[in-house]
Amino acid sequence: MSIGFVGAGKVGKALGLYFKQHGLELSGYCSITAASAREAAGLTGSGVFFDMGQLARCSDLLFLTAPDLALEELDAAAAALVREKSVPPALCWVHVSGALSSGCLKQLKALGCPVGSMHPLQSFGSPAESAGRLNESVFSIEGTDAAVDAVCRILEQTGAKISRISAEQKPLYHAGACVLSNYLVTLLYCGTGFLEAAGLEQEYIFRAVSPLIEATLANIREKGAVDALTGPIVRGDFNTLSVHLQALKEHLPSQLEFYTMMAEKTIQMVADKRITEEQKNNLIRVLEENRQHGR
Fold first, then answer.
1. What does pTM read for this prediction?
2. What are the tens digits of pLDDT across the range 54-111?
């Protein structure tokens, strides 16, 4: 099976390298700019194509590794190629969007073409590093039977972990991925801001907190989130919670609502599991009193 890529950004390059490292055949890349297609082709030892039709005629499966906003336009252009009989209707078209289902390739699907989506649950940086991380990634796939079968054959050759997902649940799936990846960055930004306000020097903060973050992740891997939790809430220590809220009022009032929201979510997480009803009520009381005094 010969694999082509429409789009030569971080994801397209990383996937191409990953497939190449596992002995899969790449036809090559086409992209908005010839320069980016040449760069991706050079990186993966594959071909450069100057239009999608040319690439499609040399491929058995095309990955659309372009931004989500470009998929509607690509679907229309690809469907035109099929109607013109420039490419065979059996060619598989698979996009890599996390949020959109294969249903966004509606014109191709209406023509009976195999369409699917394949999303690696991974964030992407440099192509080489990202290709290495793909060896540990889970790939979520959905689509028509022929497209799913083709993607499964590819991923079985790489030894990848595969998760089947319904088209209807793609937005919820992607929202979860955003919370775990994008909003983790936001959480770290806010938490380190607390430390900086407390007087830690900015250039040393991440060095200081890295062991804490790594130990927390290790505990979650070993025990799961509920049992890995440490700190004042799981101890039912409402006095410490009150001290935190008072400090934020005085020094970082803009972060008070954020901290309160996170505390409430954490109480919900461990209620009836690791804290008693009385402890839960005491913690909630402190949060509610703080809200009332802040009005």
1. 0.89
2. 999 999 999 999 999 999 999 999 999 999 999 999 999 999 999 999 999 999 999 9
| β strands within the chain, DSSP E | 2-6, 25-30, 47-48, 61-64, 92-95, 115-120, 138-143, 161-164
The whole-angstrom separation of Cα 293 and Cα 295 is 5
Among left, alpha and beta (phi > 0; psi -120 to 50; other), residue 140 is beta
What angle in degrees, to the nearest 10, is found between the helix axes of 202-223 and 182-197?
Answer: 130
- CA distances 231 to 2, 234, 260, Å, are 53, 6, 15
Asked if 294 contacts 245 with a C-beta cutoff of 8 angstroms, the reply is no
Q: Which helix (H) or strand (E) holds 20?
A: helix 10-21
**The CATH number fitting domain 2-169, selected from 3.40.50.720, 3.20.20.70, 2.60.40.10, 3.20.20.140:** 3.40.50.720
The domain ranges of the chain are 2-169, 180-294
Token pair belonging to 102 = 């294969």
